[in-house]
Amino acid sequence: MSDLIRQSATTLAAAIASKEVSAVEVAQAHLERIAAVEERVHAFLHITEVSAIAQAKAIDERIAAGEQLGPLAGVPLALKDVLAMKGEPTTAGSRILEGWRPPYDSTVVQRLRDSDIVILGKTNMDEFAMGSSTEHSAYGPTHNPWDLERIPGGSGGGSAAALAAFEAPLAIGTDTGGSIRQPASVTGTVGVKPTYGGVSRYGQIALASSLDQPGPCARSVLDTALLHAVIAGHDPMDSTSINAPVPDVVAAARRADVRGMRIGVVKELGGDGYQAGVAQRYSEALDILQGLGAEVVEVSCPHMEYALGAYYLILPSEASSNLARFDGMRYGLRAGDDGTNSVEQVMAITREAGFGPEVKRRIILGTYALSSGYYDAYYAQAQRVRTLITRDFDAAFAKVDVLVSPTNPTTAFKLGEKLDDPIAMYLNDVATIPVNLAGICAMSLPVGLAPEDGLPVGFQIMAPAMADDRLYLAGGALEAALVDKWGHLLIEEAPEL
Q: 80, 122, 193, 418: which one is catalytic?
């Protein structure tokens, strides 16, 4: 394995800027790694090799000419295939968008380009981001690099697996109910769900518009902060984008100090049902934070127990509306267009052929929840619960600076283990969903391996809206303490593929 692919994004950027190594060499090393391991991992749906090398060459030429580029210039990145990238296949993991090449870039992609980050390709995901294991992709499952028989989390398992397999040092995910944090947790990587509206959704294929949020993924807290700073900020193309200064997440990650910080342990997010090894590593992380000078207290958010039920009414309702545009008429798959079927029949045949079973399940559930006679009983009631959960967070943050919980109840489970049990699959997101309902921000970072199976355990930190810097302050401090304890980042223990 090339030494280049094991370097942090921060280290690679510095080496490229100082001409110790070229951006082309870095890109080529990662493309070679992808070629070597993709058959086993399947993190990518599409590799943009030609454009990546061309972009890297242009960066090297500008550096040679004496230009000062951005802090991540020349660093490779894996992009979740739910964000539009001009001229490149963008499928959202679905057959119904097969062959679609967007005529425009999403705002996130444009900001990556403007910062001279090299995009290596589009990563696998659960279809339309509906899933917790990346098994619902129409193009086959992604495998966890820690154990190829296990899931890499979802819906953004491809982005997290690319990081853990050393195919890219940076990645972009999207988080609707945990789709950045949950894969980070089970792959031993770092993932952040920014404040809702903190990163533009323009050009993101929508699942649930009031919950979706793009965010940064990496192998360290500082690398994640540097990527966060690149993609965040107001965008007039997104009506929900927050027109306010971006918190200085990079300075917070570098400061990494929790002395005097009040940390709240959410009583409702850490009880029964957690794997013993997850609970053990979580408890140890709390002890470390306390030893670093933080005050750890228990807080109650009494309406959290209703979050899962509310979420699985709100999300399908919004999905049934957003996915109505995929009809085979304007772009993507068209089936049944043999000259004998009506427009309505072509739409029905296309949707039957193009949507997978999990997408169909949620569309049906959402359409039912929005239907006449049931709207008030289901969707409207779920929105009331959402308000109560938001108030719980507000009350908790009046007492503490950040809240914490395990990210996942368990480590990565085996492929196929929960595929036929939707409720068991949904319960994986029990600790992550409340964050999206309230629109606040959260991070997952690795805090060790579970003793019983040797797989990564994630630790979730939550902060108020537009206080994303607190995630990096606490996460950076915890990571530094763990590195002192282990002598390296946890990801260095990932097995060779």
A: 80
